[in-house]
Amino acid sequence: MQAEITFLTQRGTAAIRRSGRVTTERLRFGRGTNNEVPLPDIRVPLSAAVLYQGQDGLFIEKSGDLPLRINGQPTQGALVRIGDEIGIGPYRILLHEPPAGLDVAFSVELARPIGDSLQRIVEHSSIGLEATHLSKRRPSWVLFLVLIAAALVAPILAYEESGRVTAPTAVSAAGGTGGAFRAAWNPGQLSNAHRYFANQCATCHRVPFTAVRDSACLGCHKGIGAHVPATQAAGTAALHADLQNRRCADCHIEHRGLDSLVLREGALCVKCHRSLAQKTPAAGILDVTAFPDGHPQFRATVVADPSGPTLAKVTLDRMPKPADHPDLVFSHKAHLRRRGFPALGIKPMVCSQCHVAEPSGQGFLPITFKGQCQSCHKLRFDIDLPWKQGPHGDDRAVAGAVEGFYAAQVVEHGVPAAAVRQEIERRLPGNASTSTPMPAAPRAWVAQKTEAALAVIFKSKEGCFYCHLADPRRGRFRVAPVRMLIRFLPMARFDHASHRALDCEDCHAARQSQSSANLLIPGIKRCTTCHGAESAAFKAETTCVSCHVFHRHELGPMRETAGVSKMTRAPEKAKR
Amino acid sequence: MSISDHAGAAAARTDRHESFLVYKRFRFLKIAVAAIAVSLALYIVDAPYGGRYGGTWAGYVLGTVAALIILWLTWFGYRKRSYLKPEAKLVAWLSAHVYLGLALIVIATLHTGFHFGRNVHTVAYVLMCLVIATGMFGVYTYGRYPQRMTENRRGLTLRGMLGRIASLDDELRSAALGVDDATAALVERSVATTQVGGSLWEQLSGQYPGCRTAAALAGLDWLDRVSVSVSPEQVRATRQLRMLLEEKALLLARARRDVTYKAMMEVWLYIHVPLSFALVAALLAHVIAVFYLW
Predict the structure, then answer these.
(1) A107 and A96 in contact (C-beta within 8 Å)?
(2) Rounded to an integer, what distance in angstroms lies between the CA atom of residue A527 and that of residue A499?
(3) Averaged pLDDT, B222-236
(4) Which tens digits make up the pLDDT trace of B89-116?
(5) Which residue did the predictor score with more confidence, B272 or B6?
(6) Residue A492 half-sphere exposure, CB side, CA atoms within 13 Å?
(7) ipTM of this model?
(8) Closest chain A C-alpha to B272 CA, distance in angstroms
(9) Which of A34, A397, A440, B89 is deepest in the core (most CB within 10 A)?
């Protein structure tokens, strides 16, 4: 197919014609330069239409998405004749009579040049988010500065303001604007005990960019007990020095809320305690590597020699079984008869009758004769005066007290008539004398009655020595001092109150004990039936500090606090 | 030009079109996974007394790494504006930006030791999470909209679409010369107020409730119903106008869709960037706070 194509271009009022001839099977129209009829306008697709010689004549077919119009009517494809007007976007194509020898001729004209209309649309349209009120730069800087001000500058100013306070005072943690800014830095709630001065960061954080010093803690906790005695057995000096170099905060972590601020991990203790037996053999400390496996059997502190008295630590596993020497004759078994003492009108006894819990419930009040024994074991010494009991607790005072009692009787009532009559009555012949004659003279009567009473009181198995041991070294009417211990495991802290759900006999085999020498403290196995390691899933989680105390007040203060005032922030502030 | 030159050029072209997600066979994904694995190992290995938190040695290591990554990723915002560097390098930066940014979720969370509260420290963490979340949305838009945009454009640029609409406007004005005043007024309003883009909502939603072209089509329908006696010329002209208006409406919809896709690909940055600045400020406050009150 041979075609003549005439491009018409308007230049002002003049029209410029540019003609060319093309020989091809198919005439392609479109924006692309590969088209036989290029239509260089942005509104036209790369390929818009194709014109070719069909069986019935010239046929034009749409090839892009731009509507094709023949004489104003949209179409997908149609036969065209001379005189038809083809519309492709802004272009108008008019078919002419072809010159001789050619198959087709047409003119191409840009009927609607892009111009004012496009400009108007562009002006009306705001395309892209940068054309809206949105901005990246402005909110970025605003947020940056707001956060720097609120999260950095304000808390520092608030801290500096509170920095003048070095001793905790009762100020609400939430009080004031400064409080809010200080709280903004708070990485976590303080422990309950410290929360009342949570608003005063400088109470603990005294010097910026410096880790909390011990002096801050010792400001309040002046007398906190040491862990090892300063003058202990050989080998402990290094450990002592090591402990002196540790910071309070190594073991006490704050800002953990209601969780204890005391580190509870056993590994912290085991770090030292796993090898103390080798490092400090003289201290007599056993190694612990873990709990329950790795913890030695308990060692009870008992009276080894009551005469000293000498205390000794004995392991509960020892054979023969370790014995205490309280110098008291006592049988739990005898007291815990299942039937009680019906002849005396006493019901079966229970533990709590004698073992009275401390108000805290942790331990028990000391056993006393008056409190626990006297209600049954009366100190009678005269069969004629069953209401009268001898004194208890001071064997030296017994004789004087008894003699004084009888002397008072004589002074008040005189020598009893029976004694006087006995003095003047003659004994009938054949009658044997039934008793020692009672002297009628008051002094002699008192002496005789006193002698008889003391014989009863200090008689073996009936008087004092029913429970006590005689101490002949101290004299005739002398009782060996009782050495009854309150705690047998003084290095551990056992809370009876938290074990209230158990029966006493679950741990203490008192019903079988016939001697006060028997130790009724259960061994570690009893504990480990319920208590397991820190990671135990099916037993009570137990760490070293569950039973043991680190700061032992009986050893004196852990740190010297004399230098505390040098480290406080107050003088630094005052200098400014 | 040798065969190898051809191959090299083809490889370079492929390389240039490689998505930032698969850059260098997921090089930065692998690096990010390795960083996560190392962080997890560090977190597990270090079992400090009192539990894990940001202040242990492992916590400091994780925190330092996380802070450096945050600063480095923020630097990308500046780096991508430096057009003097080679293009391929920028793809590497973006790939690293995306994968290391995602790795931050794990690294920074391990740094916290899962301790959160109402404080500056948690604000920094939450801001970081928000920045990452907006970034993830950005990656999503980059995966979703370019293809839709291509499908919608069908070889035309947005300016091409606007050009066509402008042509249609011209045709509409010509065709409306012979119609009654009411119809002409409808057409003129459509032509005079042709709008693509606009407010933030219009760009994002693609909803243009005040579109005069849609109103003109509705108006023509209404006039059809109420007009009693109409000349055949008028009927022809109205038909022509309706056809042109419908074509314009379709083109407008396409152009507006294009604008919406573009807006979706941009809008997240208007949150991502300001939040990143806020994060850098909060991070600064967090680090200074921790050591100021050590």
Answers:
(1) yes
(2) 11
(3) 78
(4) 777 778 888 898 999 999 999 999 888 8
(5) B272
(6) 19
(7) 0.85
(8) 9
(9) A440
Place of tokens 């054949």: A430
A253 to chain B: closest CA residue: B50
Task: Give contacts of A267 with chain B, Cβ < 8 Å.
Answer: 49
For the cut 60, the answer to whether the pLDDT of residue B6 exceeds it is: no
pLDDT digits (tens, 9 = 90+) for B159-168: 888 888 888 8
pLDDT band at A233 (very low <50, low <70, confident <90, very high): low
Annotate A419-447 with DSSP letters as a single string. Answer: HHHHHHSPPPTTPPP-SPPPPSSHHHHHH
pLDDT exceeds 90 at position B125: yes
Residue A41 has pLDDT above 80, yes or no: no
Compare all CA atoms of chain A with the CA of B161 and give the residue at the minimum distance: A43
pLDDT at B78 over 80: no
In this structure, are residues B253 and B91 in contact, taking their beta carbons and an 8 Å threshold? no
Q: Collect all residues of chain A within an 8 Å Cβ-Cβ radius of residue B165.
A: 121
CB contact under 8 A, B273 and A136: yes
Length of chain A: 576
Residue from the list A45, A112, A126 with its beta carbon closest to the beta carbon of B167: A112
pLDDT tens column, A269-306: 898 888 888 887 777 888 999 888 899 999 999 998 87
Q: Could you tell me how many residues make up chain B? A: 294
> Do residues A439 and A448 make contact, with C-beta atoms less than 8 angstroms apart?
yes
For residues A503 and A510, give the distance between their C-alpha atoms in angstroms, rounded to a whole number. 12
Instruction: Give which of B119, B167, B171 to mutate to test A binding, by max A Cβ within 10 Å.
Output: B167
* Cα dihedral sign, A508-A512-A514-A517: negative
d(CA B67, CA B104): 9
Res A139: pLDDT:
92
> How far A166 CA sits from the closest chain B CA (Å)?
15
Q: Token digits for A97?
A: 């009579």
CB atoms within 10 A of CB A432: 5
Q: Which amino acid is at B31?
A: I
Residues in contact with A42: Cβ distance below 8 Å, sequence separation at least 6, in sequence order: A31, A114, B157, B159, B160, B163
Percent share of chain B, pLDDT over 90: 30
Q: Provide, as residue numbers in chain A, all residues whose Cβ is less than 8 Å from the Cβ of B199.
A: 126, 132
CB A233 within 8 A of CB A511: no
Residue A554: CB atoms within 10 Å:
9
CA distance A190 to chain B (A): 12
Instruction: Please name the helix (run of DSSP H) or strand (run of DSSP E) that holds residue A391, with its range, or none.
Output: none
Q: Are strands A26-30 and A37-38 parallel, antiparallel or unpaired?
A: parallel
Of B160, B171, B197, the CB nearest to A42: B160
Continuous H helices in chain B: 3-16, 23-45, 57-79, 87-112, 120-153, 158-175, 181-192, 200-205, 212-226, 232-267, 269-292
